[in-house]
Automatic annotation (TrEMBL):
Keyword Translocase (UniProt): no
Cited SUPFAM superfamilies: DHS-like NAD/FAD-binding domain, Thiamin diphosphate-binding fold (THDP-binding)
Record protein name field: Thiamine pyrophosphate-binding protein
Transmembrane segments: none
Stretches of the chain forming a coiled coil according to its record: 323-350
PANTHER family (alphabetical): PYRUVATE DEHYDROGENASE [UBIQUINONE]
Species per Swiss-Prot/TrEMBL record: Hymenobacter cellulosilyticus
Residue ranges of every copy of the Thiamine pyrophosphate enzyme central domain listed in the record: 193-320
GO molecular function: magnesium ion binding; thiamine pyrophosphate binding
Lineage, opening ranks: Bacteria, Pseudomonadati, Bacteroidota, Cytophagia, Cytophagales
Length: 446
């Protein structure tokens, strides 16, 4: 069996998994990795202003492609700069692998120059975080890290001391890419019947839909029609739920519409679909609740759930549909749609420019941006008012994408995402929406 250096094993395994670029800032402790990348065809090193921007860039690539993306930081400050961006990647549930270089292995524990403990630092923002302390660990740890990031849709971190990265180990041909399971998870019939009974016997059902509905648009509309249910969407679900949806009544929450809030609060039953919406004060705590989510840990986290179904949203709705009764009473739906039209009109009236008026109200700018953007535009927006205007004035059609730090809430994420997306989609019009107060951070990150 041939021998390779630890750096060669890591890079070759990443390439076998389809990785074509690594975002980061060079440093002595990363020399082993960067030297191998320089010598390999088919993978390139993308220099960034700082490592946080590299993590944001990797997160944007993973978000758009659904494939593994990679970033790297040298020892000490180099990898601690990754921290905020990796928190965002992990909370956004995108598959990212971070290479965190470490000081020489014999110096660990001696308060050496730039000493940190990345295997502790990154534990909370990763699904897998391990130190490669011996060359023979490299093959298995790298493969486990890749598989964990892809299957759990989260961050995996490999901590690699600089001296270890130059050492050699026996290396079989990379076994990756490992086939990602295409199996679908569907609850049992007993659980499905319990959910159907609750929904069938409720007079006013409202659906709250999130990013977990990404592949369930058709099923969502069918269920809304059967139940006569208005559909409220969470911010991360906007690009998936809003397009061509006659049952949509907007968002709720701090960025939302009164119509979305009232549709939920007036309901006697709530159907939560693929959402972990965090603001419990905007959810009806007295309504009987059915929740469907592929992640069992989300069930009951935000509201009292009477029937919880762990399963893929699309497949579970397909199994649930034959058990639902068509509701002829549409008063709850019609009232919610009327409220939405009124709320929409009020917001649109704030987005009108007047002849001779040189001021540029943000609502008007947002409306023009929406009108001028391409049908397949990718929008990135910063935290703060850009997110408000994006939530209220951007319209989605099934082709447009919206990327932001919607769970972690990190400022200055829009610009670093923009330039990597420009490489990935050079023919797509990309529109960054940085917050004014974030511009110094954004430009420093690019």
């Amino acid at each position: 069996m041939a021998k390779k250096t630890v750096s060669e094993i890591i890079v070759d395994t990443l390439m076998a998994a389809g990785v074509t670029r690594v975002y980061g800032v060079v440093g002595d402790s990363l020399n082993g990795i960067t030297d191998v990348i320089r010598a390999r065809e088919g993978i390139e090193w993308i220099h960034v202003r700082n490592e946080e921007a590299g993590a944001f860039a990797a997160g944007a690539e993973a978000h758009v492609t659904g494939s593994l993306a990679v970033c790297a930081g040298s020892c000490g400050p180099g990898n601690t700069h990754l921290l905020n961006g990796l928190y965002d990647c992990h909370r956004s549930r995108v598959p990212v692998l971070a290479i965190a270089a470490q000081i020489p292995s014999v110096e660990i524990g001696s308060q050496y120059f730039q000493e940190t403990h990345p295997e502790i630092t990154f534990k909370e923002c990763s699904a897998y975080c391990e130190l490669i302390g011996h060359p023979d660990q490299t093959v298995r740890c790298t493969e486990i890290a890749i598989q964990t990031a892809l299957t759990q849709r989260g961050v995996a971190v490999l901590v690699v001391p600089g001296d270890i990265s130059h050492q050699s180990a026996e290396a079989p041909e990379p076994r990756l890419p490992v086939l990602r399971s295409k199996a679908t998870l569907v609850p049992g019939m007993e659980e499905l019947r319990a959910a159907a009974d609750l929904l069938n016997t409720s007079d006013k059902v409202t659906i709250m839909a999130g990013a977990g509905c990404a592949q369930a648009h058709a099923e969502l509309l069918q269920v809304a029609e059967m139940l006569g249910a208005p559909v409220v969407h969470a911010l991360r679900g906007k690009e998936y739920v809003e397009p061509n949806n006659p049952y949509d009544v907007g968002m709720t929450g701090l960025l939302g519409f009164t119509s979305g809030y009232e549709a939920l609060m007036d309901a006697d039953a709530m159907l939560l679909l693929g959402t972990d919406f965090p603001y419990v004060q905007f959810l009806p705590q007295e309504a009987r609740t059915v929740q469907i989510d592929v992640r069992g840990e989300h069930i009951g986290r935000r509201a009292r759930v009477e029937v919880g179904l762990v399963g893929d949203v699309a497949a579970t709705l397909q199994a649930l549909l034959p058990l639902l009764n068509h509701k002829s009473d549409r008063r709850h739906l019609e009232k919610s749609l009327d409220n939405y039209r009124e709320a929409r009109q009020d917001l649109d009236e704030l987005a009108v420019g007047e002849s001779g008026d040189t001021s540029m109200h943000p609502q008007y700018v947002a409306r023009l941006l929406n009108e001028q953007a391409a049908e397949d535009a990718i929008f990135t927006c910063d935290v703060g008012t850009p997110t408000i205007w994006a939530a209220r004035y951007l319209q989605f059609n099934g082709k447009r994408r919206l990327i932001g730090s919607f769970n972690h809430g990190s400022m200055a994420n829009a610009m670093p995402r923009l330039w990597v997306l420009n490489w990935l989609s050079p023919v797509v019009r990309l529109l960054p929406w940085p917050a004014t107060e974030a511009l110094p951070c954004s430009w420093a990150s690019c």
